[in-house]
TrEMBL record, chain A:
Transmembrane parts of this sequence: 39-57, 89-106, 164-181, 193-214, 347-365
Domain 4Fe-4S ferredoxin-type, chain residue ranges per copy: 262-291
Database matches in Pfam families: Fer4_18, Fer4_5, FixG_C
Gene Ontology MF terms: 4 iron, 4 sulfur cluster binding; metal ion binding
Organism: Rhodopseudomonas rhenobacensis
Family matches, as NCBIfam families: ccoG_rdxA_fixG
GO cellular component, one term: plasma membrane
Keywords for this protein: 4Fe-4S, Electron transport, Iron, Iron-sulfur, Membrane, Metal-binding, Transmembrane, Transmembrane helix, Transport
Name recorded for this polypeptide: Cytochrome c oxidase accessory protein FixG
UniProtKB/TrEMBL annotation, chain B:
Official protein name in the record: Cbb3-type cytochrome c oxidase subunit
Subcellular location as annotated: Cell inner membrane
Described function: C-type cytochrome. Part of the cbb3-type cytochrome c oxidase complex. FixP subunit is required for transferring electrons from donor cytochrome c via its heme groups to FixO subunit. From there, electrons are shuttled to the catalytic binuclear center of FixN subunit where oxygen reduction takes place. The complex also functions as a proton pump.
UniProt lineage: Bacteria, Pseudomonadati, Pseudomonadota, Alphaproteobacteria, Hyphomicrobiales
A single cellular component GO annotation: plasma membrane
Source organism per UniProt: Rhodopseudomonas rhenobacensis
């Protein structure tokens, strides 16, 4: 709904500067269903973020025992029972696809659920507001104090507030680096000032970004910096339930007193008493009654504020609620409300999530712990030996993803009578070199395949390499070609 | 739309003025930037002046402004390279002292030697032997098992150190004589012996040429270096003529040219340019290409 704005309400002065000052926002405290949901989600999100690095997971001797660890020096990623190598980065692609489609699905069901409840910017800003409220008081007190200027008590409050903010920000940055090293060890090193410089630098960076973004930038991040509101606006549809002011019920806005008089005379008036509580609690400082807008992160706090007022004056709650324009118009036409959660869009999104998730899970379950890659020498492609035989050389990479050393044998299926030789390896049996692969690492070998002198060779013959774990019987295979000069 | 003024029109739906810019009837709303954004932008401009002062920035006629700290990315590279050399120090020292055969046995040293050898080969040897050491006419292919001066690790190291006909006192000497130019053999004899040489490795001979006579000429002139069975002699760099590998080519015309004019390819000595550890690494690398004995 777009309502005309009179020139006197203009936000911008055509003769003024080409920029606007940040409007200070003093959100009022509120309680209700959605505030409660936000508290719970905040506790869960922050709990996971701050404590996950300390969760242990036994992977055997010599392997890190941290449940979630991004081991950059050794380029490994550990997540509970999963250990990923850099070449398995496609699992993250799958994860990102699932995450993106989940956001799409949330958006088509309940609007900007991500922005309002789960986004780190929202969560940390919420924490910072809670601290601010605790120290400086609620909306009115904060506005009053801000207008009054600096006193000794005010100064003390500010120092206390910023100290607590910086502590939270510092803990946030501190928790971040714990994902990149053994957490208990790193904590000990940090406390005794023995941690690597890079850890302190990253803690510093994230402390300052947290402090700046949650303490000062706040809604400016959502309105000006974040691309997601724009994307979400494009993703929503007419059936999605967004935080909506039900103007069919609310208009005409009439004060409580006037409404009684009007109703006594049999006139029809709206339920909105224009108390502005929805505006007072809004963390981005907007008026939800202006309709769906970019600045609205859809946190639902205005719903709680309005419900509180409606209960107090004995009117039906959810004048503001999760709703859409279709239902507003249906109610205006006297038709019953319709909610369509199951519709092609949501079905397709769900199917995609399940599909991609299943593919990823399958790939993960059938993931090979022994792998081989072969790269044919490009220069020269083939070498003629003095007895007339032909030799092709290959660079072979063997990946042992198990946490222990293992012995593998290399078998080659190629031109009839071909011999295999691995540079630097003494061969016990000429056609079957055996190699020891170190635990959890890649081994690179130079493998030479030589045809017999009298072989009749096609210009290119397929050649297969089979790697067999002599102990476990695991087999990994790959293929390439054997070419003539 | 109403109220035209110098700033464009006032848009009632959004409650904002337009900028006055119009394209085909579509007007741009005036949506001012937040102040912090503009201030950040100005701060970045000021920051750029600091950059000019601190880092090398402006080209001058003869040189450039060097900045307060004389920062140079080139000097940074030198420092990083020195650090790298320091890290490699121990391993390179081990490489320089270890017996050649032991290097190939130790996977760590082998990998180190191959990596080092490959890099140095690319810088120094690839010009003649090719980046993959596949050689070309007159420049031996180092991937195969045919070696003019021997293919053991020690022999390869020796060849790299002192070269062949390089002018170094320790260099390999010996050359293919110009039998035609010196008048030792006449044209017919050269054709005959060339066909005999082709027959040694099973190649076809020209009809009408007396191969047996060629054998006689060969025995009289060539066996001193190439040996009675024409298997060559690595001490003299005389190639094996019975195998399938030909440095200059196996066609009759090329062989005739070789016998007429002789051959004396030059391999430079590297001992004065590369340190012993690097030469060892290169010997291991060349040996590991596949043809090493």
């Amino acid at each position: 709904m777009n309502k005309p704005v009179l020139p006197k309400d203009l936000q911008t002065d055509p003769d003024g500067p080409l920029y606007v000052a940040q409007k200070k926002i003093y959100p009022q405290s509120v309680s209700g269903t959605f505030r409660r949901i936000k508290w719970y989600l905040m506790a869960i999100c922050l709990g996971i973020y701050y404590f996950l690095p300390f969760v242990r997971w036994n992977r055997g001797i010599g392997a890190p025992d941290q449940a979630v660890l991004i081991d950059l020096p050794n380029s490994r990623f550990y997540f509970f029972f999963i250990e990923l190598w850099p070449q398995e980065i496609y699992y993250f692609t799958g994860l990102l696809i699932v995450a993106a489609i989940t956001l799409f699905l949330m958006n088509s069901l309940g609007g900007r659920v991500w922005c309002g409840y789960l986004c780190p910017q929202t969560v940390w800003t919420d924490v910072f507001y809670a601290v601010e409220r605790l120290i400086e008081g609620d909306r009115r007190e904060r506005m009053k104090k801000a207008a009054e200027g600096l006193t000794l008590q005010r100064g003390a409050e500010l120092v206390l507030k910023h100290s607590i903010w910086i502590l939270i920000a510092w803990w946030t940055g501190g928790a971040w680096v714990l994902y990149f090293a053994d957490a208990p060890t790193l904590v000990k090193e940090l406390v005794t000032f023995q941690a690597p410089m890079i850890a302190y630098i990253w803690i510093g960076i994230l402390t300052s970004t947290t402090y700046l973004l949650a303490g000062f930038m706040r809604e400016q991040v959502c309105v000006y910096m974040c691309p997601w509101p724009r994307i979400q606006a494009a993703l929503t549809d007419e059936w999605a339930l967004n935080v909506t002011y039900k103007y069919d019920r609310g208009e005409q806005r009439t004060s409580l007193k006037k409404a009684e008089q009007a109703r006594a005379q049999g006139e029809k008036v709206g339920d909105c008493i224009d108390c502005n509580q929805c505006v007072a609690v809004c963390p981005t400082g907007i008026d939800i009654r202006d309709g769906s807008q970019l600045d609205c992160i859809q946190c639902g706090l205005c719903i709680d504020a309005c419900d509180t007022v409606m209960k107090k004056i004995g009117r039906e709650t959810r004048l503001i609620g999760y709703d859409n324009d279709i239902n507003i118009h249906r109610r205006m036409e006297g038709k019953p409300e319709v909610f369509r959660m199951v519709r092609p869009r949501t079905v397709v999104y769900s199917a995609l999530i399940v599909g991609v998730g299943a593919i990823m899970l399958y790939a993960l379950m059938t993931r090979s712990l022994l792998d081989v890659n072969v790269l044919h020498d490009r220069n020269p492609l083939a070498v003629r030996l003095s007895d007339g035989s032909v030799r092709n050389a290959y660079t072979m990479r063997l990946l042992n993803k198990r946490a222990f050393d293992r012995v593998v044998a290399i078998d080659v299926e190629g031109p009839a009578g071909a011999q295999v030789q691995v540079v630097g390896v003494d061969q016990i049996t000429p056609e079957r070199p055996t190699i020891v692969l170190g635990r959890d690492q890649t081994t690179e070998l130079r493998v030479l395949v030589t045809s017999s002198p009298d072989a009749q060779l096609a210009p290119s013959t397929p050649v297969k390499f089979h790697i067999t774990d002599i102990g476990l019987g695991e087999v990994a295979s790959t293929s390439d070609n054997f070419v003539t000069p | 739309m109403a109220e035209h003024d110098k700033h464009g029109t006032f848009d009632e739906v959004t409650g904002k003025h337009t900028t006055g810019h119009e394209w085909d009837g579509i007007e741009e709303l005036n949506t001012p930037l937040p102040r912090w954004w503009v201030l950040t932008f100005y701060a970045c401009i000021i920051w750029s002046f600091a950059y000019w002062a601190v880092y090398p920035a402006w080209p001058l006629v003869q040189s450039y402004t060097t900045g307060w700290f004389n920062y140079s990315s080139r000097a940074d590279v030198a420092v990083e390279l020195a650090k790298l050399e320091a890290i490699r120090g121990d391993k390179m020292a081990a490489l320089a002292t270890a017996p050649l055969a032991d290097i190939e046995k130790d996977p760590g040293m082998l990998a180190m030697a191959r990596a080092r050898g490959k890099a140095v080969f690319g810088d120094n040897c690839a010009a003649c032997h090719g980046t993959g050491a596949a050689g070309s006419k007159g420049f031996p292919n180092l991937n195969d098992d045919d070696w003019l001066w021997g293919g053991t690790l020690e022999q390869i190291e020796q060849t790299i150190k002192y070269g062949a006909r390089s002018g170094h006192a320790e260099a390999h000497e010996g050359q293919m004589l110009a039998f035609g130019q010196s008048g030792t053999l006449n044209k017919d004899e050269i054709v005959t012996v060339a066909n005999y040489v082709r027959s040694l490795s099973g190649l076809s001979t020209r009809p009408g040429v007396d191969v047996a006579a060629g054998g006689k000429i060969f025995a009289e002139n060539c066996t001193v270096c190439h040996g009675d069975e024409a298997k060559g002699n690595p001490d003299l760099g005389a190639p094996n003529l019975t195998d399938r590998i030909w440095l200059y080519g196996s066609d009759e015309a090329t062989i005739i040219e070789t016998v007429t004019n002789g051959r004396a390819g030059v391999m430079p000595a590297w001992i004065d340019r590369l340190d012993p550890g690097t030469i060892k690494a290169m010997a291991v690398y060349v040996h590991s290409l596949g043809g090493g004995k």
